[in-house]
Amino acid sequence: MNFHQLHIFFTVAEKGSFSAAAQFLHMTQPAVTMQIQALEEHFGTKLFHRTTKKVVCSEAGKTLLPYAKQSIHLIKETDEAMSKFTHSLKARLQLGASLTIGEYILPRILGPFSSEYPDISVSLKVNNTTQILDEILKHKLTFGLIEAEIHHPDLQTQSVLSDELTLILPSNHPLLELDILMLEDVLKYPFILREQGSGTRQVMEKELSKHGVEINAMNIVMELGSTGAVKSAVESGSGISILSHSSVKHEKTLGLLHTRTIHGVSFKRDFYSVHINTAILPISAITFLNFLRERDIGKWL
Predict the structure, then answer these.
(1) Residue 300 has what DSSP assignment?
(2) Which H helix or E strand runs over 143?
(3) pLDDT for 172-228, tens place per residue?
(4) Distance CA 286, CA 107 (A)
(5) Minimal CA–CA distance to 173: which of 243, 238, 219?
(6) What is the pLDDT of residue 22?
(7) Contact indicator for 98, 132 with CB cutoff of 8 Å
(8) What's the burial of 261, exposed, middle or buried (CB within 10 Å: 0-12/13-18/19+)?
(9) 3-state secondary structure 228-275
């Protein structure tokens, strides 16, 4: 018996079929069956009752299940504890990130990370939050970083970074003349928003809804698929928007865009790591997530 067999057993029990477990584990179905048979031979008893539609745990399987689950948690905790000693680890870090994180946050963090862990190479895929979640659920990505908290029975999320959205305005906009901006002042003007499904859009809608403002009551003149496109449209004077403060630092320094707070409205949010509940993350991913949690990331943003 080994941990690999226990992990396969737990996955078959969770998924209710050998084929679904094989797909989840990126194994062939015969390989999954062979490992379960080896485990059954080790214990000298059947662990599953097989039917034409699904498999269910036998009494022995039901007894083993909590121990298998506990072993998975123990391995995760072990990797977490040992990740601080992996400075010489030669590995590949593959992750997905939603657009704001991937385009404006991670590029400033990956440099310091690579300096501290020079033997971990990074492969980053950038997409909107909905697409990142879809790829994780389809097992095309091991884990990702997203901009909005989600609730899904198959996914585990954990806060790793903080961020804040802010109102952005073009030069010479009338709102720049006001010392205090009220929400009713801001809503008089046309908005340019990120597309539905983006984390930025979800956070904005959630906060405005708390103040009795529904999205269909706003004067939305454009919905664009990237933060860069939104910034360019605002800069041209086509409207105003609400974006991550980190994403407009360059334009703000050059005087191309201006940021303002809205009185009584806070768009603070967390960025979250997300992965399949039962997935065991590679040590490179655990090392990177610990890096995000334990360092003063704000100095690079």
Answers:
(1) G
(2) strand 143-146
(3) 999 999 999 999 999 999 999 998 888 889 889 999 999 999 988 899 999 998 899
(4) 19
(5) 238
(6) 85
(7) yes
(8) middle
(9) HHHHHHHHCCCCEEEEEHHHHHHHHHHCCEEEECCCCCCCEEEEEEEE
Report the predicted TM-score, pTM, of the whole model to 2 decimal places.
0.64
* pLDDT (0 to 100) of residue 298: 63
Instruction: Centre a 10 Å sphere on the Cβ of residue 94 and count the other Cβ atoms it contains.
Output: 16
Element at 50 (helix H, strand E): strand 48-50
Tell me, what's the pLDDT at 283? 84
| Helix (H) and strand (E) counts in the chain | 12, 11
- Spatial contact of 221 and 175, defined as CB atoms under 8 Å apart: no
Low-confidence ranges of the chain (pLDDT < 70): 83-89, 296-301
Report the alpha-carbon distance of residue 268 to residue 244 in Å, rounded: 9
Q: Angle 59-82/3-15 helices, nearest 10 degrees? A: 120
Phi-psi region of 26 (alpha: psi -120 to 50; beta: other; left: phi over 0): left
Residues 6+ apart with CB under 8 A from 208: 214, 215, 218, 265
